[in-house]
Specification:
Thiol Ester Dehydrase, Chain A; single chain; mainly beta; globular; seven-stranded antiparallel β-sheet
Length: 152
C-alpha cells in the first residue's frame, strides 16, 4: 500500500489529459463517498463568451469525480488503474449555471453495483448551494487497466 494524502491533484488519478481534465482536486475519500473541487476559469474548454460553463459538463464533472475517487483508492492499494465508461444518466437536474470564478464542490456517493456496473449519486455545490445533481451509471471492465494520467 502506498502512503498518499489528501487533498491531492485530481489528474493524478484520472485517465484523461488536459484539456479534458475537468476537476482540480480530490479533497475527501472514504469507502462510499468522495469530494472533489473545481475552480472554474476562462481556460476551461466549455466556458462560453458570457463566462458560463455548458450545463452538459455537470455530468462529466460527476463522472470524473467518481473516477478520481476510484483512482485514489487503487493508487493507495498499489493496484493498476482501471478505465471506466459513463453509460447512463438518470434524473440529473441542472438548477443554475456555473460561471468563471465559481468554486464548485462535487460530492459522489456510490449507491451500489454489480458485474462491473456502478450507480453513483452526485451533487454539485457552489457556496453550499446545490446547482446540479442526479445519478450516473458507470461501467468498469475488469480486463482493462492502464496507468493513471496516461493519455486515453
Amino acid at each position: 500500500m502506498r502512503n498518499l494524502s489528501l487533498p491531492a491533484t485530481a489528474d493524478d488519478f484520472l485517465p484523461h489529459a488536459q484539456p479534458m481534465v475537468f476537476i482540480d482536486r480530490l479533497l475527501e475519500c472514504d469507502d462510499e463517498r468522495g469530494l472533489c473541487e473545481l475552480q472554474l476559469t476562462s481556460a476551461h474548454i466549455f466556458v462560453d463568451a458570457q463566462g458560463r460553463m455548458d450545463r452538459a459538463c455537470f455530468v462529466e464533472l460527476a463522472a470524473q469525480s467518481f473516477a478520481a475517487v476510484k483512482g485514489w483508492k487503487l493508487a493507495c492499494q498499489g493496484a493498476p488503474f482501471t478505465s471506466g465508461f459513463l453509460v447512463g444518466v438518470q434524473a440529473f437536474e441542472c438548477l443554475d449555471d456555473a460561471r468563471i470564478g465559481d468554486l464548485l464542490q462535487i460530492e459522489t456517493i456510490e449507491l451500489g453495483g454489480f458485474d462491473g456496473y456502478t450507480v453513483v449519486r452526485a451533487t454539485i455545490n457552489r457556496g453550499g448551494e446545490t446547482i446540479a445533481g442526479g445519478k450516473i451509471k458507470l461501467y468498469v471492465p475488469s480486463s482493462e487497466t492502464q496507468d493513471p494520467g496516461a493519455d486515453v
